Amino acid sequence: MAIAYLGLGTNIGERYKNLRDAIDLLSKNPEITIRKKSQIYETAPYGKTDQPNFLNMVIEVETHLSPTNLLYYGLKVEEMLGRVRKEVWGPRIIDVDVLIYEDLELNIDDLTVPHVEMHKREFVLEPFNEIAPKVVHPTFKKTINELYKELKRGVMDY
Ligand SMILES: Nc1ncnc2c1ncn2[C@@H]1O[C@H](COP(=O)(O)OP(=O)(O)OP(=O)(O)O)[C@@H](O)[C@H]1O
Ligand SMILES: Nc1nc2c(c(=O)[nH]1)N=C(CO)CN2
């Protein structure tokens, strides 16, 4: 049994429903138990800025799935909700990212854990900090709360 954190994001269609549906599908998998859910945050688009605002949240799950199978199930949820991949960082019905999986650092074909960009993204760190401020980022050896505060202060240099 492992603890993992997933980031959810949506900026097309019925955004609240998209999050509800994604959580529903995640919890329908017998290998996944949702333990905590952050609030839903309305966030300005990061990276590619000429697109609608996002709703973002972070959830804590307990799972028997391996990191790769958790990723694949997240991709399946994206597919079931009708996401069509068009452009990197572009608009999406739902995005499911594996942020952290236990204290693992993995860099394999389809999966990099911790998520490579997570420490630079307020839309990830703010909800993550709400539900799990003490979780340690395995690469930087800093807590989510420390990373969040650093990002807010603008002192990140990695
Ligand atoms: N930790 C991870 N979580 C989710 N996807 C990952 C992760 N690491 C690598 N990937 C790969 O990235 C691909 C996701 O591409 P996607 O189109 O969702 O990127 P994006 O959402 O536009 O950008 P970002 O991943 O920076 O949020 C997946 O097919 C998956 O194989
Ligand atoms: N606010 C916000 N901006 C983004 C998001 C997101 O989920 N929220 N996802 C992106 C690609 O993964 C790119 N930019």
TrEMBL record:
Transmembrane segments: none annotated. Keywords: ATP-binding, Folate biosynthesis, Kinase, Nucleotide-binding, Transferase. The lineage of its organism: Bacteria, Bacillati, Bacillota, Bacilli, Bacillales. Pathway: Cofactor biosynthesis; tetrahydrofolate biosynthesis; 2-amino-4-hydroxy-6-hydroxymethyl-7,8-dihydropteridine diphosphate from 7,8-dihydroneopterin triphosphate: step 4/4. This is 2-amino-4-hydroxy-6-hydroxymethyldihydropteridine diphosphokinase. It catalyses: 6-hydroxymethyl-7,8-dihydropterin + ATP = (7,8-dihydropterin-6-yl)methyl diphosphate + AMP + H(+). Pfam families: HPPK (PF01288). NCBIfam families: folK. Residues 5-133 form the 7,8-dihydro-6-hydroxymethylpterin-pyrophosphokinase domain. Its EC number is 2.7.6.3. InterPro entries: Hppk, Hppk_sf. It is an enzyme of class 2 (transferase). GO terms for molecular function: 2-amino-4-hydroxy-6-hydroxymethyldihydropteridine diphosphokinase activity; ATP binding; kinase activity. GO terms for biological process: folic acid biosynthetic process; tetrahydrofolate biosynthetic process.
